[in-house]
Design brief:
This protein is about 55% helix and about 0% strand. With about 325 residues, it is mostly helical. The N and C termini lie far apart (about 60 Å). This is ZSWM6 protein.
Length: about 325
């Protein structure tokens, strides 16, 4: 699958060569044992090695693989099949790569690289003006990701240490909102979770204090980019608050998601400020629902801060 993806997006490969390779790949797909390489075809695949992940860290190179496609240099208006062009295929591959569930790697450099690759690919996608064909691709991929199994980072169930989808979901939200608001909110709300900070009860007998003390210090993995991730989570929430102004039902849903998923009191306080600014932005009457959201988030900040203080100084 990865090989065919690289072939079909290779701007130097002629249509006859692609047809030949498609026929060959279909033939290989029908056999039970992987065939030996055919040296006669080796020269027909220039520069494909760099587009494929190498070694044990292949799972962490999904976004690097997508970035190597360099779709902005492809002949965007050359159509392969009805409604398909190099550009539409490349955009769809990029969305698939961004939405894949992947475990956060160990080490500061590797974790920063994950964030950087994601942001660079999204930045390239933002240069493209969406037309009706691309909007259909966005909607299709969003539905696939929401309904996807263990390979989707937006699936209903994900690994606790899966790389969060906040940055990608914010991009999807802004692209889908003018065309399918329901799907846009559903995608963004699903992405709001940050399971690595959730308090999960470990297995075993927790009735003894010494057992609790032995498991709590190891509860959270070492995510060096956690502060950046929480900032992106806050940005996603603020984007939804802004878009939901005037819609009571959506504002209540976004508020519930913030209260459930955001654990940083400083970010909750920032969202309270954002909600107040958005509510009083225009010269007209302020948005009462948004003011209530601001008040509730402000009260939550006070309560969270008070509970985190030493018991002697905590007076309510």
């Amino acid at each position: 699958g990865a090989l065919w993806m690289c072939i079909v997006l290779n701007p130097h490969c002629k249509l006859e060569q692609k047809s030949s390779w498609l026929k060959q790949l279909k033939k290989w797909n029908g056999v039970d044992v992987c065939p030996w390489e055919d040296g006669n075809h080796g020269n027909e695949l220039p520069n494909l090695t760099n587009a494929l992940p190498q070694g044990a860290n292949a799972n962490q190179e999904n976004l690097g693989q997508c970035r190597s496609l360099e779709y902005q240099h492809l002949p965007a208006h050359k159509f392969l099949e009805e409604g398909e062009s190099y550009l539409t295929l490349a955009v769809e591959v990029a969305l698939i790569g961004l939405g894949q569930q992947r475990i956060m790697p160990d080490g500061l450099y590797a974790q920063e690289k994950v964030c950087r690759n994601e942001e660079q690919l999204i930045s390239k996608l933002q240069e493209i003006e969406l037309d009706d064909t691309l909007v259909k691709i966005f909607r299709k991929q969003a539905v696939f990701l929401l309904e996807g199994g263990p390979y989707s980072g937006l699936g209903e169930v994900i690994h606790r240490e899966s790389v969060p989808m906040h940055t990608f979901a914010k991009y999807l939200f802004t692209c889908l909102l003018p065309h399918d608001a329901e799907l846009a909110y559903k995608t963004a709300l699903r992405a709001m979770r940050l399971l690595v900070l959730e308090s999960t009860a470990p297995s075993g007998d927790l009735s003894r204090p010494h057992h609790i003390a032995s498991v709590v210090p190891n509860r959270y993995p070492r995510w060096f980019t956690l502060s950046h991730i929480e900032s992106q989570q806050c940005e996603l929430a603020s984007t939804m608050l802004t878009a939901a102004k005037g819609d009571v039902r959506r504002l209540e849903t976004v508020l519930e998601s913030i209260q459930k998923n955001i654990h940083s009191s400083s970010h909750i306080f920032k969202l309270a400020q954002d909600a107040f600014k958005i509510a009083t932005l225009m010269d007209s009457l302020p948005d009462i629902t948004l003011l209530k959201v601001s008040l509730e988030l402000g009260l939550q900040t006070m309560l969270t801060t008070a509970l985190s203080l030493p018991s002697k100084s905590c007076t309510l």
